[in-house]
Design a protein that fits this description.
The complex is a heterodimer. Chain A has one domain. In chain A, helix 5 packs antiparallel against helix 6. Chain A is built from eight helices and two strands. Chain B has three domains: 32 residues; 96 residues, 3-Layer(aba) Sandwich (Oxidized Rhodanese, domain 1); 69 residues, no CATH class. The longest helix of chain B is centred in the first third of the chain and has 21 residues. Chain B is of the alpha/beta class. Classes of the chains: A mainly alpha, B alpha/beta. The interface between A and B is medium-sized, with 35 and 25 residues.
Chain lengths: 205, 216
């Protein structure tokens, strides 16, 4: 176990190398998002009208791949799960933030990552969304003295599903796989139903 | 993408099958950490224990810490609250369960301690079983540390050079040496012969009170 993954945590490479790796991973991430059509606001919006659930399927594919990978790498002793960063939970502010995010996603048709992909291919809606996002981040920073108290409230720390549900990691993994596969089947069914009155799938520029 | 994927149902099915197998086996495995198995050379361990090469004295440990012995890890296996009250400078708190899992540096030196010696000795065994060669424990535990390093009592008949080195070590760790009448004590009081001398540091005193309350 000593000196396994996460490599950066165990000092296998330094800050510089980790930045280069991050750059390469970022390029690959953007490349594959665009390949999957995720830079297209119309395709992403289709999710909210149950006509195109690519985003849901892509997200669940990514979650299953990462989850099963982490679980079994840890099981094989190649990865120390306790050294993997878990973002902290703040229930109330994250509920509010999630609502704002959802409204923005459904309205603009892009999420932060995909708006960068859209902007990179020259889509104007992507550029507009990035400008709005930066303005929002700036506004949040300026307003923090007033809303900071709320933003820090209902903190639960690094709170994981096994802790919250009182189940073993393996059981949560199994449940997530079942939910994901159910979601895949449901998504395919919804898409087939939506396809009957054939919708044109134009690329928006 | 939808139509594209539908043209290759084989890949989708295969991936779904992999996910199902991975998920079902995860439920069976339960924990993502496998039980850590180690093995020991029983004869070798018996020899080490018999030759008393398995522990260090508090004074030896103090000298290692003071002299900055390279790659020395001092592990405190008591509870968090006890650790917060008082611990040996530079020590890291690791519960016994953590010793079974923690990443190890096989070239480092590990010293384990608890209140007394029992838990630390058990931790010593765990680390040996995990293949670390340089593991020691503080046989008299924190008792010994407080008595021999923080508040040592030396007889007035103890040679000056020895007294100076004991005093210097105590001072380095913020403790204090007391010279007692040679008639009332042995030159180097043993941890095991009872009364602990009162340390003047309030946190150390509190630590001792806690130690005394709980029979070790």
């Amino acid at each position: 176990m000593s000196g396994g993954a996460p490599f950066y945590e165990f000092g296998r490479f330094g800050e510089g190398t980790s930045l280069i790796i991050a750059l390469l991973l970022g390029i690959a991430f953007g490349w594959f998002l665009e390949q999957g059509g995720m830079g297209n606001a119309r395709k992403l919006s289709g999710q909210f009208y149950f006509t195109d659930l690519s985003v849901l399927k892509l997200m669940f594919s990514a979650i299953l791949t990462a989850m099963l990978g982490l679980f079994w790498l840890s099981w094989a002793g190649l990865l120390d799960l306790s050294r993997v960063y878990v973002p902290e939970t703040f229930i109330a502010p994250q509920l509010v933030g999630g609502l704002v995010f959802g409204v923005g996603f459904a309205t603009g048709g892009l999420c932060p990552g995909t708006s960068c992909v859209a902007a990179a291919t020259g889509r104007k809606d992507g550029l507009a969304l990035i400008a709005g996002m930066l303005a929002g981040v700036f506004a949040f920073g300026e307003a923090f003295p007033a809303i900071g108290h709320f933003a820090d409230s209902t903190a639960r720390g690094a709170w994981t599903l096994p802790q919250a549900l009182g189940l073993s990691y393996g059981t949560v993994v199994g449940i997530t796989v079942a939910v994901a596969l159910g979601a895949f089947a449901g998504a395919e069914w919804l898409e087939r139903r939506a396809e009957r009155p054939a919708r044109p799938m134009n690329v928006v520029a | 993408m939808t139509t594209d994927a539908r043209r290759r149902p084989g890949i989708e099915r295969a991936l779904a099958a992999v996910a199902i197998v991975g998920g079902v086996m995860a439920v069976i495995a339960g924990s993502p950490t496998r039980p850590t198995r180690g093995s020991v050379d029983v004869t070798e361990l018996a020899r080490i224990v018999e030759h008393e090469e398995d522990h260090v004295t508090a004074v030896e440990l103090a000298a290692w810490i003071r002299d900055g012995k390279p790659r020395l890890h001092v592990l405190d296996i008591r509870a968090d609250s006890e650790f917060d009250d008082f611990h040996i400078p530079g020590a890291r708190r690791v519960p016994l369960a953590g010793i079974a899992r923690m990443p190890l540096d096989s070239a480092a030196t590990y010293v384990l301690y608890s209140e007394g010696g029992t838990h630390a000795a058990q931790g010593w065994f765990l680390l040996r079983a995990r293949g670390v060669k340089n593991v020691f424990f503080l046989r008299g535990g924190l008792y010994e540390w407080l008595e021999q390093v923080m508040s040592p009592r030396v007889a007035s008949t103890t040679p000056q050079a020895q007294r100076d080195s004991i005093r210097a070590l105590a001072l380095w760790f913020g403790g204090r040496m007391t010279v007692v009448d040679s008639a009332s004590t042995t030159a180097t009081p043993s941890v095991l012969d009872g009364e602990l001398s009162a340390p003047h540091k309030p946190d150390a005193r509190e630590a001792i009170r806690k130690i005394r309350r709980r029979a070790c």
